Amino acid sequence: VQLQASGGGLVQAGGSLRLSCAASGFTFDDWVIGWFRQAPGKEREGLSCINCSDAPELYADSVKGRFTISRDKAMLYLQMNSLEPLDTAVYYCNAAYQVFNYWGQGTLVTVSS
């Protein structure tokens, strides 16, 4: 059972990237799934989730209107538009169900000004 994140890279401010997260060994049907990021020197920040405990879909204020989360059976995506230098971070996908909690390995997004 693992998650594999991909799609990070270097992009100019105002550009777009699409992150992907592939699940192996399970599907996302009953799981809370989402994206987090961690910028240098900062704590990990939750960005968006599907099947969240409080709502079908949620976004952090910092990305609302710019990022879109989506999924299919075993893939999770994060479409990131209007990227800003402050979005530079390592992005992680996460899947949680009952006592199980899995993290992808992280993919680096660098936004240049």
Rg, rounded, reads: 13 Å
Number of helices: 0
Tally of extended strands? 11
Basic shape: globular
Largest sheet: 7 strands, mixed
pLDDT averaged over residues: 95
Report the sheet-strand fraction: over 45%
Q: What class do helices, strands and sheet pairing give?
A: mainly beta
Span from first to last CA?
38 Å
Low-pLDDT stretches are: none
H-E order: EEEEEEEEEEE
- Please bin the fraction of helical residues: under 10%
Structural write-up:
By secondary structure, this protein is mostly beta strands. Helices cover 0% and strands 56% of the residues. The chain has no helices and eleven strands. The strands form two sheets. Strands 2, 4, 5, 6, 9, 10 and 11 form a seven-stranded mixed sheet that branches. The protein has a four-stranded antiparallel sheet with strand order 1-3-8-7, with no helix packed on it. The model has no long low-confidence stretch (mean pLDDT 95).
In short:
By secondary structure, the chain is mainly beta. Helix content is 0%, strand content 56%. The protein has no helices and 11 strands.
Keywords:
globular, 7-stranded mixed beta sheet, mainly beta, 113 residues, 4-stranded antiparallel beta sheet
Give the helix/strand layout.
Blueprint lengths: L1 E5 L2 E4 L4 E8 L7 E7 L6 E6 L6 E3 L7 E5 L3 E6 L8 E9 L2 E4 L3 E6 L1
Parallel strand pairs: 2-11
Antiparallel strand pairs: 1-3, 3-8, 4-5, 4-9, 5-6, 7-8, 9-10, 9-11
